[in-house]
Design goal:
single chain, about 100 residues, mainly alpha
C-alpha cells in the first residue's frame, strides 16, 4: 500500500491549522517572556511597517516568536503525519 499522507495532501492543513496553532503558542511564549523580564530593555514598542518585525522592539520580539513557533509546529506536525502515513501504509498496528 502507498502512503496517502503526502505533503501535497497535507499542505493546507500544515499551513492553516498547524502554523496558526504554533503562532498562538509563540504569542503566549512572547507575552510570558515580556511578563517575566518586563519591557525595560525595549525603547520602542514597534508595531508599524518594518518595525513590527524588528526583534529589538517589543512587538517585533513577539512577532518573531510567533513565526518561529508556527514554523516549528508545522514541521513537527508534518513529520508526524508523514510517519503516521508510513505506518498506516504498512498495515502495522504493533508500532505503537
Amino acid at each position: 500500500m502507498k502512503n496517502k499522507l503526502t505533503l501535497g495532501k497535507t499542505f493546507f492543513v500544515l499551513i492553516v491549522a498547524a502554523f496558526t496553532t504554533g503562532m498562538g503558542n509563540g504569542s503566549v511564549f512572547g507575552a510570558a517572556v515580556m511578563c517575566a523580564v518586563g519591557r525595560g530593555p525595549y525603547d520602542n514598542w514597534g508595531g508599524w511597517g518594518a518595525e513590527a518585525f524588528d526583534p529589538s522592539t517589543f512587538s517585533g520580539f513577539v512577532d518573531w516568536m510567533m513565526l518561529v513557533f508556527g514554523l516549528a509546529f508545522a514541521i513537527i506536525t508534518g513529520l508526524a503525519m508523514s510517519k503516521h502515513g508510513e505506518i498506516e501504509s504498512r498495515g502495522d498496528n504493533t508500532a505503537w
